[in-house]
Every structure is written in C-alpha cells, then in structure tokens.
Design a protein that fits this description.
Length: 250
C-alpha cells in the first residue's frame, strides 16, 4: 500500500510512524508512507498557502492552488494507482473500525490535513472522502491522519504477526474485547478466573465470548442493537439483564 500525507507539518509524523508496528510495516514493505508539504506549492517569496475569507469573518482559509498542485504532484508520481483521497474534516463521516478495514484494502491512500479556519470549498472537489476523527475540533488534520493511518496499517494482512489477535480486537467482531489476565494468578487478593487456568480451550473460548458480550452490554449497549444474536447469546443477555436488575434492587 502507498500512503501520501499532504500537510504543512511533515515533521509531526516522524515520531508516531518511526516506532512499533507502523515502523515495522514500512521496513517490511507492507506500506510506503510519504509526506508532501503543500507549503512547497505556496505562492511568492513567502510561499503563502492561506488567505482571508470572501465575505469577511474570523480566521484564514487554505487556498485551493497549493493543495490542487500537491495532489497533482502525487498523481504525476503514481499515475496508475487507484487513489482514495481523504480530507480531514470535523464535518466529515466519523472514522471507525469498519472504515479502517475498508482503507486497509486500498492500493493508495492520500490524506489531506487542513489547518487554520478550514479549506476553500473548491478543495472538496478533489476528494473521494471527507472524514472526521470525532466530534471535536483539532488544531489541524495531522493528529487525525496519524490515528487513521495507524488503525489502517495494522489491519493490512501480515503486518501484525498474529492476525487472529487483530481479528479479535474490540470493534472487529462487532463486540468489545473480553477481559485479559497474565501472571501472577493472584495479585493483592485479586484472582484470575479459574476457567482461564483450567487448560480447557473450549470452556475458555466460551467464557471469553460471554465476557465479550457482557462488557459490550454494560459499556456499549448501542453496539448490540445492530447484531444478529445467536440463541445462546440471547440467553446470556437475559442473564446479564436479570443480574443487573437484582443488583439495582440491592
Ligand atoms: N472551522 C473548522 C470547522 O468548524 O469545521 C475547523 C477547522 S480546524 C481548526 C483545522 C483543521 O483541522 C480542519 O480543517 C481539519 O483538517 C482538521 N480537523 C480538526 N478537527 C478534526 C476532526 N475532528 N477530524 C478530522 N480533522 C479535523
């Protein structure tokens, strides 16, 4: 996969992409990540990339020309690749695991990071997607692009050594992940559930599945609404509900 990031602050990406899984994914050639500083396409001696809004108002807007030219330079370097051009925008579609999975199957992703008050509206004609990290406003699109690249790259098959661990992560299965424990078996009086030490893999799988559903029911019941539950899951759910009712009564 090829990823280009169009930004005014390329140095910001050095640390997050220079460690751990994203670093290894680049070294092992699962992904090639480059930054394009659109300041280089700014006009005049000061390479201006922003200007005041027509009609007045607070703040500066990113001008169309530098971003159009930055995208053109990416097109020229990789004419044949099929690109997803993704605008970082708090007004875009909210990023989630499903979108990360979709992005991880693409050939070439281009992230455009905004700054200042936002973009000249015509920049939107360049893009295939407008995506938000969440319902809050960041100073620039860089942090959002970092998060989206990280979540996407770890889903490229082969990037994370044990692919099963990625497939079992929270949100990948539609449920939150079950609780985990490691040694010691007892710490400060808190004990690891007996079943996890039993060596019975079928019982362990069942316990994990049930606890995954319990955690989702307690923390994110909205996620359960969109699931097609098996008869066993429905009976577990009924059990959690009655447990909760009896707890509320006490
Ligand atoms: N005035 C803009 C608005 O109300 O939508 C916010 C501009 S924000 C200060 C500057 C840039 O940061 C945005 O153009 C966008 O690229 C990026 N940004 C801010 N919040 C974001 C979010 N939640 N998700 C993705 N990008 C975001």
């Amino acid at each position: 996969m090829k990823i280009d990031i169009v930004t005014l602050f390329p140095e910001m990406f050095e640390s997050p992409f220079g460690h751990s899984i994203v670093k290894r994914a680049q070294e092992d050639e699962f992904v090639q990540i480059e930054t394009v500083n659109f300041r280089n396409f700014g006009k005049g001696k000061h390479r201006v990339v922003d200007d005041t809004p027509y009609g007045g108002g607070a703040g500066m807007l990113l001008k169309p020309e530098p971003i159009f030219e930055a995208i053109e330079s990416i097109e020229e370097k990789s004419v044949r690749s099929k690109k997803r051009i993704i605008l970082m925008d708090p007004a875009g579609k909210k990023f989630d695991q499903e979108m990360a999975e979709e992005f991880s199957r693409e050939e070439h992703l281009v992230f455009i990071c905004g700054h200042y008050e936002g973009y000249d509206e015509r920049i939107r004609s360049l893009v295939t997607d407008e995506v938000s990290l969440g319902d809050y406003v960041l100073t620039g699109g860089e942090l959002a692009a970092m998060v989206m690249v990280d979540a996407t790259v770890r889903l490229i098959p082969g990037v994370v050594g044990n692919q099963d661990s990625v497939l079992e992560d929270s949100h990948s299965t539609g449920l939150l992940e079950h609780p985990h424990y490691t040694r010691p078996a007892v710490y400060e009086g808190m004990e690891v559930p007996e079943v996890l030490r039993s060596g019975n893999h079928q019982l362990i799988e069942e316990w994990r599945h049930k606890e995954s559903l319990r955690r989702t029911y307690l923390r994110r019941p909205d996620l359960i609404e969109s699931l097609d539950l098996t008869a066993e899951e429905q009976s577990w759910l009924a059990e959690f509900k009655s447990e909760q009712l009896s707890q509320d009564e006490h």
